[in-house]
Amino acid sequence: MAPAQEIINEQSLQLSLFSNPHNSNVLHLDHSEYLGFHYLFLYEVILALQKHIGYTIFNTALLNDLVTIRIVEPASKLRSIELIEKL
Q: Measured in Å, how far apart are the chain's first and last C-alpha atoms?
């Protein structure tokens, strides 16, 4: 791989995206822990879109939350309410 990389560097006029492939800023997944996913940003964006198109005219938080959760994870109304409580 090293000779091939040298040929690419010599013949290509493009700069490399990674100047040092052994950079210490690399995230090692085997030393990391997944803590979960938070939907707050997505919720805020969808709520802003609802306000922009005038969907929040009813000013019903439950209705807005049902719309948002069904976009995130399409499910039955009962399952959607369970997901709202969970998330």
A: 47
Separation CA 12–CA 37 (nearest Å)? 40
CB burial readout 25-34, b (16+ within 10 A) else e: eeeeeeeeee
The dihedral built from the CA positions of residue 32, 37, 25 and 28, taken in this order, carries a sign that is positive
C-beta separation of 69 from 83 below 8 A: yes
pLDDT digits (tens, 9 = 90+) for 21-39: 555 566 778 888 888 877 7
Of all helices (H) and strands (E), which one includes residue 43? helix 40-52
What is the predicted pLDDT for the residue at 64? 82
25 Cα distance to chain centroid: 21
Quickly tell me which residue has 């085997």 as its tokens: 30
Residue 43's alpha-carbon distances to 21, 33, 38, 78, 79, in angstroms, are: 37, 24, 9, 19, 18
